[in-house]
Write a structure and sequence with these properties.
two-stranded antiparallel sheet, 74 residues, 3 helices, flat, alpha+beta, single chain
Length: 74
Amino acid sequence: MARKASAANKHFSHFSPETNLFEELERVFRDYGESGTGTTVITSTMMKEAKLYGAEPGTFTEWGPLRKFRSAVL
């Protein structure tokens, strides 16, 4: 990580602050902890997931209600 960061590559990890919506993520956990509900997005990484959630592969769905999700193994 240090080597990539020193090369000015701040997008090498999907865990980096530049590639996350930490405030929204915090809200999801807070809302769920307080009420057992919340909103979230789904990453559509495979063609089957994309069809299931109506999003292009490699993208995210729109924000929607937190629900039980089907397994990624379809």
